[in-house]
Design goal:
There is one protein chain. The chain has helices at about 10-25, 40-50, 65-70, 90-100, 125-135, 155-160, 170-180, 185-195, 200-205, 210-225, 230-245, 250-270, 280-290, 290-310, 315-330; strands spanning about 30-35, 80, 110-115, 140-145, 160-165. The termini are far apart. About 35% of the residues are buried. The longest helix has 21 residues, at about 250-270. By secondary structure, the chain is an alpha/beta fold. Helix 4 links the parallel strand 2 and strand 3 (about 110-115).
């Protein structure tokens, strides 16, 4: 577990936490929001680690008894709220784990800290129960709500918490991390970084995912050969996608990035701007055989496919329509 200095990105949030510690103006409730994998839990744990550290500084020492307890997930004043139902955090979860225990003073340090992961799963009743504690908390109590969507919270919860939204990292930061820490080849790092879209956790997951590698190879074959396939072959491919349980969103992202490269190369002729640099011959060939109008129709088709997916339209039908657009717009 790193200190603030070793966390990649999120400089404004780290600086806010450090300043709060240094000035002793720590809030009683925070909301950290962002996509899964962006570092919410890491930030929350390092903030908690620092607050509970016996050194009293704005970075944890990592060596004191309190730090060692936090690092081993065994500190009595750092509580991770759990829930039995996977889809919701109920009122009993909040009452039993927070409301009924927060009034017991810290065992060791100056703070008693609660981390609620997936806080967007709190029911309205659970939020109302938590609100009573947030409105009048004990001076030593602090609650960290981690969420992928803070919009689901009651306005009264939002108004009583310090809200912090995690922003995507720069692509160069993600790429450098993958290359330096995971020893990823540069051209593969470019691809993983493009899919990660500034989410380091997603980039790390993709780099080690066999499912992603399977998706990549199958979609690569499709993009290179779709103009040679007849309708039955395309339908067979779509069925195979379902059988292999390929990630629908990743498949659509692949198609979008592929044709982004095709259009970019047609406009610039610059190989270095490509995401799929290793596939330069195929990108160049498709680019030379396509005009701007046909590429525009394909990109619009991709957007329509994404809209259909967001409205839960049948994925097989969505992909069938998209692949027909791609095939019919290949000169």
């Amino acid at each position: 577990m790193p200190g603030f200095g070793e966390i990649l990105g999120h400089d404004q949030i780290k600086e806010h936490f450090r300043r709060a510690i240094e000035t002793e103006k720590v809030s009683h409730a925070y909301i950290l929001s962002g996509e899964s994998g962006m570092g919410k839990k890491t930030l929350a744990k390092v903030f908690s680690l620092t607050l509970l550290c016996e050194s009293g500084k704005s970075d944890p020492c990592m060596n004191c008894h309190s730090c060692r307890q936090v690092l081993s997930n065994n500190h009595p004043d750092l509580i991770y709220v759990t829930h039995e139902k996977p889809s919701s955090i109920g009122v009993d979860d909040i009452r039993k784990q927070i409301n009924d225990t927060i009034w017991i003073r810290p065992y060791i340090g100056r703070y008693k800290i609660y981390i609620v992961d997936e806080a967007e799963k709190m029911t309205v009743q659970a939020q109302n129960a938590l609100l009573k504690t947030i409105e009048e908390p004990p001076f030593y109590g602090m609650i960290l709500l981690l969420t992928t969507s803070q919009e689901i919270f009651l306005p009264t919860i939002l108004s009583r918490c310090v809200q912090m939204k995690l922003k995507p990292l720069q692509d160069s930061s993600v790429k450098n991390y993958l290359m330096e820490k995971l020893d990823t080849e540069e051209e593969k790092a470019d691809i993983y970084t493009a899919f990660a879209r500034g989410n380091l956790g997603k980039g790390i997951s993709i780099a080690s995912s066999e499912d992603f590698q399977a998706m990549y190879q199958e979609m690569l074959h499709l993009m290179k050969n779709i103009h040679l396939m007849d309708i039955s072959e395309m339908l067979d491919f779509i069925r195979k996608m379902k059988e292999d349980k390929l990630d629908d969103e990743e498949c659509l992202e692949f198609i979008e990035m592929w044709y982004r490269d095709v259009l970019l190369f047609k406009a610039t002729g610059d190989r270095e701007l490509l995401i799929f640099k290793n596939e330069y011959p195929s990108i160049e060939k498709i680019s030379s055989e396509s005009n701007y109008d046909s590429l525009e129709r394909i990109l619009r088709g991709i957007e329509k496919a994404r809209t259909r997916m967001n409205f839960n339209v049948n994925m097989e039908l969505t992909m069938e329509l998209l692949l027909l657009i791609i095939k019919n717009n290949r000169q």
